[in-house]
């Protein structure tokens, strides 16, 4: 019978970040993943750390801002431990055609300032603002996080399907397709596979390879597309939001539409080669807010439903959940994220 301090189901960015936080605090952690760790929504994301995006729901803004504040140190620890650089870029974002939100620093750019700031970007007559936001390459980030976890002594098992979790006295019993496990606590971090009310929300995106090196320096958020440059020279374009269940099919017409939308703002992207395209399944919830906290069973926790913000919210979610598992206060008001608001027992 295997026994751990904490068993985490799901080796995406939320699960691995929590495992690292718990291990740093001295806990023994086992992470189980139904497929290959980090290969679902976490690696498929765009990596925009958009803490002040106007589309962020009001109750989520304080959490998003705290996630952004923690990120530089979070990245530094993971890069140092793993020896892998995650392309953490701090050049900022240019938001086109968006109203200035209440929170965050949105500095309006005149047409001349926009031309000097990003010479190959065209706003098409729409207002443009500079936003002090960062970005990261999620695929590199997950590689580094997983390597950090392994070097920290966290056991990660792939190809293990968690069937149920239930309280068993002072412990939690985790039933998998490969046997029964015991732990002091268990956490469901299975993303889109967490169970109701969490549901998959599909996003399609693509990578372009411009002929010009350094075509863009800033992330661009605009109607119809967001455009995310990487230090490698590649440019990511995304993304759709589709409610189609667990269908990860890539639709060529959708990819062409995204490519065309990006080219409206950066004309040189019209001739850029498409390197790859893919779809990820974000974990959504009925109110677009995450579910974080203890479920209807003692010592069984849920951390899921982060929708578009899993990468951004990883460090603050890890801190909060580690505190809750230790029996401490969350340190922030997380009442809006309580799993019980949907009558969740143990998904």
How does the SSE layout of this entry go?
Blueprint: E1 2-9, H1 13-24, E2 29-32, H2 41-44, E3 48-49, H3 61-82, E4 93-96, E5 106-109, H4 111-117, E6 128-131, E7 134-135, H5 138-151, E8 155-157, E9 162-168, E10 171-176, E11 179-188, E12 199-209, E13 219-222, E14 225-229, E15 235-238, H6 252-265, E16 273-284, E17 291-294, E18 300-304, H7 310-325
Parallel strand pairs: 1-2, 1-11, 2-8, 4-13, 11-18
Antiparallel strand pairs: 3-7, 4-6, 5-6, 9-10, 10-11, 12-15, 12-16, 13-14, 14-15, 17-18
Question: What would your notes on this structure say?
Answer:
- It is a single chain.
- The chain has 7 helices and 18 strands.
- It has about 350 residues and is α/β, with parallel strands linked by helices.
- The protein folds into 2 domains: about 200 residues, FAD/NAD(P)-binding domain; about 130 residues, 2-Layer Sandwich (D-Amino Acid Oxidase, Chain A, domain 2), CATH 3.30.9.10.
- Strands 1, 2, 8, 9, 10, 11, 17 and 18 form an 8-stranded mixed sheet that branches. Strands 5-6-4-13-14-15-12-16 form an 8-stranded mixed sheet.
- The chain starts with a strand and ends in a 22-residue tail after the last helix.
């Amino acid at each position: 019978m295997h026994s751990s301090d904490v068993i985490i189901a799901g080796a995406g960015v939320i699960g691995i970040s929590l495992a690292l936080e718990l291990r740093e605090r001295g806990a023994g952690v086992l992470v189980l993943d139904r497929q290959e760790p980090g290969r679902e929504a976490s690696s498929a994301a765009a990596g925009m750390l958009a803490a002040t995006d106007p589309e962020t729901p009001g109750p989520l803004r304080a959490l998003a801002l705290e996630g952004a504040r923690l990120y530089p140190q979070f990245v530094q620890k993971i890069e140092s431990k793993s020896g892998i650089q995650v392309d953490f870029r701090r050049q900022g974002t240019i938001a086109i055609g968006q109203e200035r939100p209440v929170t965050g620093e949105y500095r309006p750019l005149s047409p001349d300032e926009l031309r000097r700031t990003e010479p190959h970007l065209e706003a098409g007559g729409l207002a443009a603002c500079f936003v002090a936001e960062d970005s990261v390459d999620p695929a590199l980030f997950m590689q580094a996080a997983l390597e950090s976890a392994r070097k920290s002594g966290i056991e990660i098992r792939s190809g293990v399907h968690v069937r149920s979790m239930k309280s068993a006295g002072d412990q939690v019993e985790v039933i998998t397709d490969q046997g029964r496990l015991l732990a002091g606590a268990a956490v469901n971090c299975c993303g889109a596979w967490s169970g109701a009310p969490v549901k998959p929300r599909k996003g399609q995106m693509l990578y372009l390879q411009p002929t010009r090196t350094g075509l863009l320096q800033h992330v661009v958020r605009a109607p119809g597309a967001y455009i995310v440059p990487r230090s490698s020279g590649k440019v990511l374009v995304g993304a759709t939001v589709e409610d189609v269940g667990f269908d990860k099919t890539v639709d060529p017409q959708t990819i062409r539409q995204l490519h065309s939308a990006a080219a409206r703002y950066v004309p040189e992207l019209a001739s850029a080669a498409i390197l790859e395209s893919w779809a990820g399944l974000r974990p959504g919830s009925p109110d677009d807010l995450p579910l974080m906290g203890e479920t209807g069973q003692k010592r069984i926790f849920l951390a899921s439903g982060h929708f578009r913000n899993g990468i951004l919210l990883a460090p603050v979610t890890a801190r909060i959940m580690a505190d809750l598992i230790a029996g401490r206060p969350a340190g922030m008001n997380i009442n809006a994220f309580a799993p019980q608001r949907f009558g969740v027992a143990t998904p």
